[in-house]
């Protein structure tokens, strides 16, 4: 059973804000059937019984009416009803005002962008997906050009730095150009630290990447994700239009489906805000974007590892071989989204296609040859 205050709020959301029953249910965290029941009632009908009377009861309708006409404080309400004969305490007035006060709508400025000026990026997540014999969390990267709304989408099973930068590279190559700046949320791949009143501290790797491609980074203010509303809308659009109802049997199947969707649906639809196709509007924007650099940026994540006595190196739940003579040696590992490379000083000694399965042992057939040769000669590694 709801109280009169909640009844007033339900009717206010319906009559004044135009919300539907499901929307009101989400707003108030209630069952939609309860909302529909009370919207069909022409007046509040309390449960039969003898509810405890309150000194505030004769003044509740006036309080609701006052709050709907002006954003009075609880103190102002208290002063007004005292003049009308209320003899209760301020605390019950304050509690009641908190219950029935109409929700304050958030107001946001609509940002405008010149052609080529800016793109916005964000990650989305959508359950998990089969990868070989295991399942991994499914993520997708979205970049939207702010002027034309041309969109690029790429699915991954990781959001690490090499994937973040690799998706940027693929987006630039998809557009054939580079925006003048990119707006990002405060994810660690882009922003290491935010201190109120100071400039954000950007990830050095992302800064180097931005300098290579000639764009500047703009970080949204903390808690102000609406500042990159174009890409947030894009993330929602991917979920509703591409992913809803899509049967993804295996991770490898989603890439061609995504590109087909971009070319035949997302970028050729008439956009609700611009009333133009993103691909057509992009023609006006193309000349304002920066050219791609001559060479790609090395997006690899680099770390030091030690090869095991079985001349293996662990990466993300799998083991990769190196030549047997490097067993026990300190090596440099470079991980890319599609491959891993291992170096002894600056010499490349092993290269493998990166696996996103788990517990795999991945061996190059040439790597044990030196060990087999030494065994034939009766030698062992020191």
TrEMBL record:
Pfam families in alphabetical order:
Mu-transpos_C_2 (PF22483), rve (PF00665)
Biological process GO terms, please? DNA integration
Q: Where is the Integrase catalytic domain?
A: 111-286
- SUPFAM superfamilies recorded: Homeodomain-like, Ribonuclease H-like
Top-rank taxon of the source lineage equals Bacteria
InterPro entries according to UniProt: Homeodomain-like_sf, Integrase_cat-core, IstA-like_C, RNaseH-like_sf, RNaseH_sf
The protein's GO terms of the molecular function aspect are:
nucleic acid binding
- Descriptive protein name: IS21 family transposase
Q: Which organism is it from?
A: Desulfosarcina ovata subsp. ovata
Q: What is the lineage of its organism?
A: Bacteria, Pseudomonadati, Thermodesulfobacteriota, Desulfobacteria, Desulfobacterales
């Amino acid at each position: 059973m709801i109280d009169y205050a909640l009844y007033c709020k339900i009717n206010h959301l319906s009559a004044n804000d135009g919300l539907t029953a499901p929307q009101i249910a989400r707003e108030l965290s209630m069952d939609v059937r309860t909302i529909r029941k009370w919207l069909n009632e022409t007046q509040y009908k309390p449960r039969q019984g003898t509810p405890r009377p309150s000194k505030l009861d004769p003044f509740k309708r006036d309080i609701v009416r006052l709050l709907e006409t002006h954003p009075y404080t609880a103190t102002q309400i208290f002063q007004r009803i005292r003049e009308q004969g209320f003899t209760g305490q301020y605390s019950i007035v304050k509690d009641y005002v908190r219950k029935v006060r109409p929700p304050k709508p958030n107001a946001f400025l609509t940002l405008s962008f010149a052609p080529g000026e800016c793109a916005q990026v964000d990650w989305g997540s959508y359950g998990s997906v089969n990868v070989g014999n295991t399942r991994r969390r499914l993520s997708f990267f979205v970049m939207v050009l702010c002027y034309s709304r041309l969109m690029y989408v790429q699915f991954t099973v990781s959001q690490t730095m090499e994937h973040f930068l690799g998706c940027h590279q693929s987006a630039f190559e998809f557009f054939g150009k580079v925006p003048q700046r990119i707006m990002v949320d405060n994810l660690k791949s882009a922003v290491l630290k935010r201190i109120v009143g100071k400039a954000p501290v950007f990830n050095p790797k992302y800064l180097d990447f931005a300098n290579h491609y000639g764009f500047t980074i703009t970080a949204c203010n903390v808690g102000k994700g609406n500042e990159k509303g174009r890409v947030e809308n894009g993330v929602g659009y991917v979920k509703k239009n591409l992913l809803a109802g899509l049967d993804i049997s295996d991770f490898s199947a989603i890439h061609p489906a995504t590109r087909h969707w971009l070319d035949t649906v997302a970028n050729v639809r008439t956009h609700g805000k611009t009333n133009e196709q993103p691909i057509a509007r992009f023609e006006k924007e193309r000349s304002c974007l920066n050219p791609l650099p001559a060479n790609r940026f090395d997006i690899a994540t680099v770390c030091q590892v030690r090869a095991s006595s079985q001349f293996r190196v662990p990466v993300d739940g799998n083991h990769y071989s190196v030549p047997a003579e490097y067993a026990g040696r300190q090596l440099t590992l470079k991980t890319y989204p599609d491959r891993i490379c291992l170096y002894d000083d600056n010499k490349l000694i092993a290269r493998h296609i990166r696996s996103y399965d788990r517990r795999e042992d991945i061996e190059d057939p040439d790597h044990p040859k030196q060990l087999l040769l030494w065994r034939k000669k009766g030698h062992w590694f020191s």
